[in-house]
Amino acid sequence: MAIPGIDLNMLANAGFPAVSFEPGARIFAEGDKGDHMYVVRSGEVEITRDGKVVETLSPGGIFGEMALIDGSPRSATARAKTPCELAPINEKSFLFFVHETPYFAIAVMRTLAERLRRSVPRG
Fold first, then answer.
1. Which of 22, 25, 45, 86 could form a disulfide with 38 if both were Cys (CB 3.0 to 4.6 A apart)?
2. Cα–Cα distance between 108 and 43 in angstroms, integer?
3. Is residue 48 included in any domain, yes or no?
4. pLDDT tens digits, the chain, 123 residues: what are they?
5. Is 76 exposed, middle or buried (0-12, 13-18, 19+ CB in 10 A)?
6. Does the residue 104 lie in any domain?
7. Burial level of 100, CB count in 10 A (0-12/13-18/19+)?
């Protein structure tokens, strides 16, 4: 999910250079310690859980934010689906954005809410 109204260049220049991954490369694995979230600058990233794709992210999408919010290990695995460039955001920068850019916090919460709604079976 893209973050409307958020300048990707601002996020990409939050103190870390962009990182690139080739197709199939693992960005992080379920159970890893999470010290960054990521913004997709180009390409696509697949998020898998128990070997099943739960989401495919394109430019503007974010992932890995849950580990920064609650400090728990990664709940899923992220792999590059295509060649991709990501902007890593560490916890200090994440907290700065939440504090200084309220819409950023709302956008992250909306992303989490959308993912939660998709994961709950309708009955």
1. 86
2. 20
3. yes
4. 555 555 555 665 555 688 999 999 999 999 999 999 999 989 999 999 999 999 999 998 899 999 999 999 999 999 999 999 999 999 988 888 888 888 888 888 888 888 888 877 776
5. buried
6. yes
7. exposed
